[in-house]
Amino acid sequence: MAPEKEESVEEFIDWFLTEEEAEAPLERAPTVMKKICMLGDPAVGKTSLVARFVFSVFDDKYIETIGAKVVKRTMAVERVATVQRCRLKLIIWDIAGQRTLDFIKPTYYRDAEGALIVTDLTRRETLSNAPRWCKSFRDVCGEVPVVLIVNKSDLRAHAQYTESEARAVAQELGARLFMSSAKSGENVESAFSSLGRELVSGVLRSQRAPSLEKRGC
Ligand SMILES: Nc1nc2c(ncn2[C@@H]2O[C@H](COP(=O)(O)OP(=O)(O)O)[C@@H](O)[C@H]2O)c(=O)[nH]1
Ligand SMILES: [Mg+2]
Fold first, then answer.
1. Could you report the per-residue pLDDT of 114-138, keeping only the tens digit for each?
2. Does a structural domain hold residue 6?
3. Which end of the chain is more exposed for a tag (fewer CB within 10 A), N or C?
4. Residue 118 C-alpha to ligand 2 middle, in angstroms?
């Protein structure tokens, strides 16, 4: 089910700040809303990463995600160099990894502007399948930013591939790579933030603020 939109993205298309706004508290900064998808094989840790990022919790029990779950988290994104800041509301769709759901995936992907592709460090095939996840997503959403997360970095002793092998896959996908653990929390915030910044800089690149041009930025 689509989340109820509290604000439309269009409302914020012209969200560049005047100098006065740039100095205002973050709560008054404009909000940009983006839908992103969690992708990857079953049991790689998609739901756990979302739970860690949104609710700061980890649970050892494996509860298979049925269909899709949608959660939100608003985060601050600032570009100190250009005095631009905004609040980014991430609408995170956690998609069930089951292959049998292939035929309804396009419904989940629709209108997404980015994705986190998750693999499990202890299962090699989850890395081999990452390009397939990326392709099925980009076939629907186009060349939008993706980040590759190698999850379960706390289980390095049981690793079935190396970081440099993962980096090669990330490069092939044009994605940043993060070695993360939903269990320890390592790099979870950084992975989501990295995608968030890419989503917002897309908006930044598409327009320029008159107040910044005045400054010769
Ligand atoms: N050790 C460890 N286990 C994890 C980690 N992330 C998830 N898990 C476990 O892996 C299993 C599958 O996780 P889940 O988030 O449900 O995977 P999903 O099917 O991709 O959503 C669960 O038992 C989790 O507790 C992690 O970073 N480290
Ligand atoms: Mg799940």
1. 999 999 999 999 999 999 999 999 9
2. no
3. N
4. 11
